[in-house]
């Protein structure tokens, strides 16, 4: 074997791309696993796929974002995982129906079982009103 065949192993750009693809395929694998099983149907699967697409856009925005630009996420101090969970909530049909049925405060209390961090931040903002 020639030494030149393995030169890419010393290339940081190549390792960065490999790391990116590894992370991306890990997320795709989780999505794939989550849309399989007995209790899964087309509606819940499509909700999860739409949430994943929104997460991809969120990640793209975070990567391309100007670090000196202030957004609402920074004012509320949302972490990336919380932004991702907001994508899940937004694309969940059950949550959408519940949101229409109850008041805003009650909705965030309802959400607190599954997403406590987001719920606490939302209620902290809403309580003064």
TrEMBL record:
Classification via PANTHER family: EPM2A-INTERACTING PROTEIN 1, LOW QUALITY PROTEIN: ZINC FINGER BED DOMAIN-CONTAINING PROTEIN 5-LIKE
The protein's name: Zinc finger BED domain-containing protein 5-like
Organism: Sipha flava
Lineage, uppermost ranks: Eukaryota, Metazoa, Ecdysozoa, Arthropoda, Hexapoda
